[in-house]
């Protein structure tokens, strides 16, 4: 009997957590969730869940860009250097990548209505260009 009650309680807590985790930041209620502005509001939030969402999103973009870069290099495509960032041998923390995005987005308010995916790439490439 106790295990059924515990399972129901756990399910209720999980549902509550997942519902909260998918809520937009309070300041971003009327902002397009696919925009640079929305991601900036997530990265600048005080909620650990919102900041984690920001960091995870940017880390996913960074991984995709890195993978695409490696494929382009294997294919000997000259544009490979123009389409990626170079974090150096030691790599980057999620915190460093999300802070780079925040700094970039604040410097480029003209991009706030553009897709957040492109903004994350632009922030990485501008902050850590390949030379």
Structure description:
- This protein is mainly alpha-helical and 131 residues long.
- The chain has a single domain (31-127), classed as 10k-s Protein, Hypothetical Protein A, Chain A (Orthogonal Bundle).
- It has five helices and no strands.
- It has helices at residues 2-21, 36-43, 48-74, 94-107, 116-127.
- It is globular.
Our Rg estimate from Cα atoms comes to 18 Å
The N- to C-terminal Cα distance equals 65 Å
Number of domains as seen in the coordinates: 1
Give the total of beta strands: 0
Overall 3D geometry? globular
CATH architecture group name:
Orthogonal Bundle
Poorly predicted runs are 8-22
CATH topology name, in short, is 10k-s Protein, Hypothetical Protein A, Chain A
- The averaged pLDDT comes out at 79
* Helix-strand sequence: HHHHH
| Secondary structure category | mainly alpha
- The top-level CATH class is Mainly Alpha
Indicate the proportion of strand residues. under 5%
**What is the makeup of the main sheet?**
none
Q: Roughly what percent helix?
A: 55-70%
How many alpha or pi helices?
5
């Amino acid at each position: 009997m106790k295990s059924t009650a515990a399972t129901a309680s756990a399910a209720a807590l999980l549902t509550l957590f997942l519902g909260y985790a998918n809520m937009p930041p309070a300041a971003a209620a009327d902002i397009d969730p696919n925009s640079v502005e929305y991601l900036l509001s997530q990265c600048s939030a005080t909620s650990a869940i919102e900041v984690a969402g920001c960091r995870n999103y940017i880390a996913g973009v960074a991984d995709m860009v890195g993978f695409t870069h490696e494929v382009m290099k294997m294919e000997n495509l000259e544009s490979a250097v123009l389409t990626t960032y170079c974090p150096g041998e030691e790599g980057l923390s999620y915190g460093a990548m999300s802070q780079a995005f925040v700094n970039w987005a604040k410097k480029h308010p003209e991009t706030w209505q553009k897709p957040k995916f492109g903004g994350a790439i632009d922030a990485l490439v501008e902050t850590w260009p390949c030379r």
